[in-house]
Structures are given as C-alpha cells and as structure tokens.
C-alpha cells in the first residue's frame, strides 16, 4: 500500500508526482485508474505545499532571530 502523502519526504512526493504525470501523459491508463492517480497527485501536491510552507516559516523564524544575518546564495553539496 502506498504511503500517505504527508508521510513522504518532499523529494519522494515530487518523484511520485513525476511518475503519475508521465503515466497520465502516455494515455494508456483506464479512466478509473487515471482518476485515482489524479486524486493521489492532488494529495501529493497539497502535502508538498504544506512542507514548503513549513520550511519557509522556519527560515523566516531563523532569520528573524538574527536580523543582521546576511542572505547568501544556496550552494548544493553536489557541486
């Protein structure tokens, strides 16, 4: 059974959304299955939006604690 969207990481949600979009774009999915996938996608998007909003709030709180903290570009460890 698939995990609940709120229990997935942001990256897992995004990966599953990409898979759903690819399957729906191919058009080989029965209508009932397409509707179920669409509904799952909507739940994934909402859970992802919640995670992003929480992250934005945390950043705002952290920056509010240090008003002198300069903003700098994010550099990924992969670079």
From TrEMBL:
SUPFAM superfamilies: XseB-like (SSF116842). It comes from the Bacteria. It catalyses: Exonucleolytic cleavage in either 5'- to 3'- or 3'- to 5'-direction to yield nucleoside 5'-phosphates. The keyword Nuclease applies. Its EC number is 3.1.11.6. InterPro entries: Exonuc_VII_S, Exonuc_VII_ssu_sf. It is found in: Cytoplasm. Pfam families: Exonuc_VII_S. Keywords: Cytoplasm, Exonuclease, Hydrolase, Nuclease. It is an enzyme of class 3 (hydrolase). GO terms for molecular function: exodeoxyribonuclease VII activity. Belongs to the XseB family. Heterooligomer composed of large and small subunits. Bidirectionally degrades single-stranded DNA into large acid-insoluble oligonucleotides, which are then degraded further into small acid-soluble oligonucleotides. PANTHER family: EXODEOXYRIBONUCLEASE 7 SMALL SUBUNIT. This is Exodeoxyribonuclease 7 small subunit. It comes from Shewanella electrica. The gene is xseB.
């Amino acid at each position: 059974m698939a995990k609940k969207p709120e229990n997935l990481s942001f990256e897992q949600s995004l990966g599953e959304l990409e898979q759903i979009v690819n399957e729906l774009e191919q058009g080989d999915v029965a209508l009932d299955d397409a509707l179920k996938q669409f509904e799952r996608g909507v739940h994934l998007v909402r859970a992802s939006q919640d995670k992003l909003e929480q992250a934005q709030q945390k950043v705002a709180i952290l920056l509010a604690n240090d008003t002198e903290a300069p903003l700098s570009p994010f550099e990924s460890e992969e670079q």
